[in-house]
TrEMBL record:
The keyword Signal applies. This is Putative lipoprotein. InterPro entries: Beta_helix, PbH1, Pectin_lyas_fold, Pectin_lyase_fold/virulence, SO_2930-like_dom. Residues 1-27 form the signal peptide. Residues 167-321 form the Right handed beta helix domain. Residues 24-65 are annotated as: Disordered. Residues 41-60 have a biased composition (Low complexity).
Amino acid sequence: MPRLQWTRATRATVLALVGALSLTGCPGDEDDTPDSGVKVDAGTKTDAGTDTDAGSDAGSVDTGIPWDGGAVGSFSCEGKAQATLSFAPGQEEELQDQVNTMAECTTVQLAAGTYTFDNAITIRQKGITLVGAGKGTKGEGTGGASSTVLVFSNAAANSNGLDVVGDRFTVSDLAVWNAKKDAIRVESSTDVVMRRVRTEWAQENKEDNGKYGLYPVKSKYVVIEDCEAYNAADAGIYVGQTEYAVVRNSVAKQNVAGIEIENTKYAYVLGNTAQDNTTGLVVFDLPGNPIMGTDVRVKNNIITGNNRNNFAAAEASSSTVSQVPAGTGTFMLASRRVELTGNTWGNNNTVDVAVLSGLVIEDDLALWAPGGGNFASSDIYIHDNTFQGGSGDNVDNGNLSPKRQLGQALAALYTYGETQGAKGVEHLVWDGVDPFGHARSELNPINICFTNNTLPSGTVNAIADLDMVAAGTLAASGNFAGGWALTRHYPANKAEFACSGFSPALTIGDFIK
């Protein structure tokens, strides 16, 4: 990794070194204005026993998760008049007219083939089911005998593919191709199911591709299952500002972020594949959003080879993921009560797993007030996973940029660290920022647990505490030796990290094996 020459060490620069994540965040946050008149007490440690009622409701027969595709919200089509509308390719205009005026509890059936639209399919009704003949295969931009492809290549600028506000919405068995903005956007809705859906843009690595593939936001009871997402310029599969979500058995590849869980309460991310993205699978909160993300289980996912150069990193961009270095497997920022188990990481050039504090992107506590002071990362339980190796040895693919200053900071520290015997960035990196102000003698004040994980043969150190603010200050002034001396590097069995999770434990998804 190349040595960097730092020219100044202002406070703003140091904070940028630590976070490298924009506090303006994703476009889905644009309507939330923080109340700058409210202050948060940073001296109170997170209560791990707060907001832990996920999974306490009676479960469904299949999984025990009450919102796993069943009607949980107050709206139901039971006992109501229900209609079915059928369309074939060539009837796009009729379809657009009908969806604008259709009654609640309507099923729209789309025959196999290619449908070409010049504007979004806008749905503002409850109880709508949209079903095609199949999602087809990756790279299929036209429908076949058993696939339905909705094409938006020539649609109006800044329009979505499917644009939905409506409770009890289901979409399945179709593909959305080349949407101008978000492929499938569902907002402010309850009981949302996306099943066997593919979202894709024709060309790789284009920053003017649409931002999101599957994009449920500000919603409740969401299921995303057996879906695929490719080439999104922000996140392929996103769940944000939502309560109760399952993302299961889906594939995200060639996006900037593969799967993103943002400001979401009670999420279960199971059996997905996130490969060949800039960053694979991420969990974080941003300031200014009204939901404090908590109780997230990430289980049995494959998060490998996420080394795609960051094609969202345009100079004018301020999105969170535009500033993430290529080669980031998973990062958690301003996250709490997150359990990662049964996952596989490997060949992520920058780092497999990183835990970051929200204060490194925004130290004005008032801006975190809408989410109840959700700046602290705490209670992270990483256990029974497999780390294959091949990670942490080529930060940001060597393409270091001031736009992605987390990559610059890691490269600066570990370039010197190599002279001290470091073999690369450890599998788990904590930025070392403790929002509760404990002494550095307390090695793990935010309760990160790293236990019973399978590591590559010969692994010496698996955990790093970078003390990034202090170390970054020295590195930014060119004092690499002093910066490295402040970092700490531990074996996987370090007693302070060999904890058994948090209490009470997550109950979300306990019935899924």
